[in-house]
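Build the 3D complex.
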Amino acid sequence: MQTHKQLFQKIKISTLLDLALLIPSSYQDNQLSSSFTIGQNSIFQAKVNSINSYNGKLMVKFYLPKFNQTLQGIFFRVTPYHYQSFALGNELVIGGKLVLYRDTYQISQPKVIKNVGSIVPKYKSALKQEQTKELINTYLSLQALIDTGLSVEESECLMALHFPKDIKQIYDNGVLLDKNIKILKMVEAFNHLQKLSNKRVEYPAQKALLGDISLFIDALPFRLTPEQNSTIEAIRRDLSTKDKASKRMVVGDVGSGKTMVILASMMMAYPSKAILMAPTSLLALQLYEEACKYLPSFVDIALVMQNKEEGDYLNANFIIGTHALLYKENLPTAPLVMVDEQHRFGTKQRALLESIARGDGKRHAHFIQFSATPIPRTQAMMNSALVDISLITQTPFEKKITTKVVDKRDFSQLLGHIKEEIAKKHQVLIVYPLVEESESIEYQSLSQSREFWEERFENTFVTHGKDKNKERVLMEFRKSGDLLLATTVVEVGISLPRLTLIVIVGAERLGLATLHQLRGRVGRLGLESWCYLFTHTPKSSRLNAFTHTTNGFDIASLDLKFRDGGDILDGTVQSGTKFRWLDMGQDEEIVAIAQQRVSISNKK
Ligand code: ADP
Ligand code: MG
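Done.
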């Protein structure tokens, strides 16, 4: 015999609401039919009028007193049980689908119904019916549900779904009633948020960081956008206490100005130390350059990479580096730790990063991560119980990017445009689906095409994901290249300011979020730019929808609409959670209410 605990583990149930949300997939309604309707599953009170057998079949004629009708039941495999149940004159209740056959009302192999009047829930799970029912009967009660924080109405609804009294309260024509679905969505959101917030462990911070940022802000050559400001404000609130180490994720599209938020946070930490980690040396170098450019000159900044160091990291105020930082045994502890482009780090590296933020284990660093993978607002709210989230949905300036879906008929025009851009000293990037040719993909590979391009363009550079020299190739391309052929490796958030044209080969094979990342490579400094989606399926409504917006948050919502959600979840705080009732594209309001309820109940 398996214990209840084992059963719960088997179906991955960890809270009472998980169990309550395991609602029946259907109900067997044993109530007497109120009408005599052909085609309907029916339950009738019946009296056996006659019984006959021929050719091994058994024919039973029933009389239905309520409808004053006769009805024929047919059994194909006859046992002594049938003769006993359907003995002449017997009164019983039978059920089955009512049909009309050759002017005779019939039910084929009618069942004898025992629990007349009951509605029996049917569960679909990895457990046996009786096991599921035992768990439900043992643990679910109105009071237990109310105790989880649900309202009386919500609790009653769940009880009615598991212990049904009246099928009309549940279904209309076999479809769950809207009011029930709405409650299930709410319970699903509430349960998810509650579970996350229980997982969240708060630690005291090493220090309250109260540095003045006005010197830095006032010296900027531009004004911060409202969302940059509100994010900085949220971080200021986080850092101003040492009661609680902050855990925040700042999510903003490529080009939304996250670096300014990083630098402002750094100024809050000053004169204490801050550490900033980036996924590649190119990016670390870029951040270092920007920090030197924008931060007041009295701030000591150091750079730490595998084969390059600038400044004295032991004594610097601000230490910027790659994962090379993780291997410095004498890395000073800092009360503020930040991670840029966190979506580019692998799971293992992320765990290491967090270990840096852990300080002495009792007092943690304030920990802020930055991600350029936009997620829909609902998704952000669903994650917000585990980590605070700030969204930067607007970029400081509108990018001038024209996106077009093209196919092979447009190739000569495309080639012409590439020549034009290169003649203007701009750079072009062509992204291939694969390095080597493959039978399963009907597009050219990088290796197959490179000769074509190398013959036509002098400064053609080639790299791909497994290329050991990829960073060096990219550095050189940035300086002196015209055309870069690559696979999706170029997703790395480096800035190629002269890049104005990108061609994505086999675009329909990629998720919208990936396409968006790739498109984000061009026009970084406001030059007019183009993104060509090269495809054999130019009519794709998904690709065409993508051409109409450059806002990553809109694209994340589009991805949801086209049910391509996996791509968005990738690299966010938690991925893979599937909701049975909630629709991340539509249920923002419900999630917002659930979030409020959970945060109120946590404060109590
Ligand atoms: P992200 O890291 O979010 O991709 P960056 O921080 O690199 O974006 O910013 C992109 C560009 O926009 C940079 O050249 C930066 O100097 C500039 N920038 C940032 N904030 C503003 C602003 N408020 N107004 C104008 N330009 C800005
Ligand atoms: Mg950035």
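The chain has four domains: 4-22+124-176, 41-112, 214-392, 401-549.
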